[in-house]
Design a protein that fits this description.
8 helices; 71% helix; 0% strand; globular
């Protein structure tokens, strides 16, 4: 588990995002209970090197703030509706948008990079390019001050 007094471990956060994306996918597809999904992941996977607090926050935070999270990326879908997105793309855009909005301690470039990396691993061909574009535009809105500072 992460200790609030220490800096976050990037590798442990990466694994937390990986499992959170899979959990959100499962939640989207089956409508399964989030606590049951979390328990299943904690039982079925080696979670020793996962930031468990971050995994829990992402898995539960995205559904809790779903309308606010979707409002971050939906305006940037380039004439698509969110219903047209494949489930992996949708889960990744939700996850990244949650981090944009509620985890301002995580730099926007890290959020985008992590989502693109997961899209390359789990998404449809070239979905990473679409996700990169949507999130870059969303960052202009949600993280405008941070982007201008760079």
């Amino acid at each position: 588990m992460s200790d609030s007094a220490t800096a976050p471990n990037p590798a442990a956060r990466r694994k937390a995002r990986h499992y959170a994306m899979q959990g959100l996918y499962q939640w989207q597809m089956a409508g399964a209970n989030l606590n049951a999904i979390e328990a299943e992941f904690r039982t079925d996977n080696d979670m020793a090197k996962v930031d468990l607090d971050y995994f829990h926050e992402l898995l539960h935070g995205v559904p809790q703030y779903l309308s606010e999270v979707e409002a971050v990326f939906i305006p940037h879908l380039q004439e698509r509706s969110s219903d047209e997105l494949d489930p992996v793309t949708q889960a990744l855009l939700r996850l990244a948008s949650y981090e944009f909005k509620y985890r301002i301690d995580v730099p926007y470039k890290v959020v985008i990079n992590e989502a693109v990396t997961l899209a390359k691993k789990f998404g449809a061909a070239d979905s990473h390019k679409f996700i990169n574009g949507v999130l870059d535009h969303a960052a202009n809105d949600v993280r405008a001050v941070e982007k201008r500072a760079r």
